[in-house]
Specification:
Elements lengths: L1 H9 L6 H5 L4 H14 L5 E2 L11 H12 L12 H15 L8 E4 L2 H12 L5 E5 L4 H9 L3 E5 L5 H12 L4 E7 L11 H12 L5 E5 L15 H4 L7 E6 L12 E4 L2 H12 L7 H12 L3 H21 L6 E2 L7 E5 L17 H12 L1 E2 L1 E2 L8 E5 L4 H16 L2
């Protein structure tokens, strides 16, 4: 009987249209493949993961222990405790000059769930979401799952001015959202205040378009840059902006699963309703830890950003001697986005032609023991994403292996 049920589940008609129209996460799949090879005894330098390699700061862990000892182990309000929402309002005011009330704050099990809730709460079939490329692999799939249409804007020569033109051309009466991400995963691009000002002027001409701004890498910026978010630059857009953030990247709390957002109260209420029928409240202990993260000392956050910048500079120097790969110089986040167009079409020592970035990432994994994510799921064929959230020793070793592998093509 059990096998019959399993066979039925494999039939096309059993699974929902929503489940069938989305793809698995490419970055998660790459990380899983690297873990499997490591477990089998292979020497793998895993540069797939989008999480800091630092430990969660001690004062945050201590706050979690104190919360457990105080009995804070029960269900909380579905979209976050009042204590955490108040800490988030303080954070938005301190860092972003944005004033929110606790009723305008949503807390969920990661920024990913926040975005998912927002899209489910707002998209009707055929509604359009404009997304500049390259973008995080999950944006398009989440829009698709929610029944919307992702309208992606491929990079064009001409920089930000050209991007503005493409955004404006992409807006139709069906456009519901523009999604932006700065610092960007995977490119590391950070929007300046002037660029956001220009984007805001465009959006003011299109009052039916809302903005979802993913600021999860806010505190990881390089070369003295200052981070700005859209509603900060243009307060008139605050009433139709969802400002998304979380504690995962800044405080090395990826496994704690706490994301949050500030936005208009009707949207926040709708997101809470959806969450109440899916996961319900985030982990109570993680919420207590997040309060300590947001209200506690911020020195370590800035120190770790300096360490990421040092690693970036180390890698840029190393790639000067690796043939066929041209790295970008990221302004923030912790990824190099590698242009590998020169390697496309080359033959491996085993006689295989590298016809795609997927072939290339497999070649580097199988024959060099370096795991990365191919660029196609980010909307950038011919690229690879390398995470430098890894030790200098591992980064140097990865470059040695890549240099050797490229020289053999």
């Amino acid at each position: 009987m059990a096998s019959q049920t399993g066979n039925q589940a494999s039939e096309p008609g059993f699974l929902s249209e929503a489940a069938r129209r989305i793809k698995p996460s490419a970055s998660n799949a790459a990380s899983q493949r690297a873990r499997e090879l490591s477990a089998s005894g292979r020497s793998i330098v895993d540069l797939t993961t989008g999480e800091p390699d630092f430990a969660t700061p001690a004062h945050i862990c201590e706050a979690a222990i104190a919360a457990m000892q105080a009995g804070q182990t029960r269900y909380t309000t579905v979209d976050g405790t009042l204590q955490l929402k108040q800490a988030i309002t303080r954070k938005f005011l301190r860092d972003n000059e944005l004033e929110y009330t606790p009723q305008e704050i949503s807390v969920a099990a990661g920024a990913k769930q926040i975005i998912f809730n927002a899209l489910l709460a707002t998209l009707n079939p055929g509604d359009e979401v404009v997304i500049p490329l390259p973008c995080w692999v999950s944006y398009v799939e989440m829009v698709t799952f929610a029944g919307g249409k992702a309208v992606t804007i491929a990079p064009r020569p001409g920089g930000f001015d050209t991007l503005l033109q493409e955004v404006e051309k992409s807006i139709t009466p069906r456009t519901k959202w523009l999604m932006i991400n700065s610092p960007n995963n995977p490119s590391g691009v950070v929007y300046t205040r002037d660029q956001l000002r220009a984007l805001a002027d465009l959006l003011l001409r299109h009052p039916h378009v809302w903005v979802l701004t993913d600021d999860i890498y806010e505190h990881i910026v390089f070369d003295g840059r200052r981070f700005f978010t859209l509603a900060q630059v243009e307060p008139r857009l605050k009433a139709r902006t969802l400002t998304v953030n979380g504690v995962s990247k800044a405080y090395s709390m990826t496994g704690w699963r706490i994301g949050y957002a500030g936005g208009p109260q009707p949207l926040i209420r709708a997101m809470a309703k959806i969450q109440s029928q899916s996961t319900s409240a985030p982990c109570s202990i993680s919420q207590a830890a997040a309060v300590a993260a947001l209200d506690g000392p911020q020195d370590l956050v800035h120190e770790r950003a300096r360490i990421f910048q040092h690693r970036r500079d180390l890698l840029l120097k190393e790639f000067e001697t690796i043939p066929g790969i041209r790295p970008n110089a990221p302004e923030g986040a912790f990824y190099l986005f590698l242009d590998c167009a020169e390697l496309m079409g080359k033959r491996t020592p085993q006689g295989q032609t590298l016809a795609s970035d997927q072939d290339l990432v497999e070649y580097f994994l199988e024959h060099a023991g370096v795991a990365m994510v191919h660029g196609t799921p980010f909307g950038a064929p011919g690229h690879l994403r390398l995470s430098f959230a890894a030790s200098e020793a591992n980064l140097t070793e990865a470059c040695r292996r890549l240099r050797q592998a490229c020289s053999q093509l």
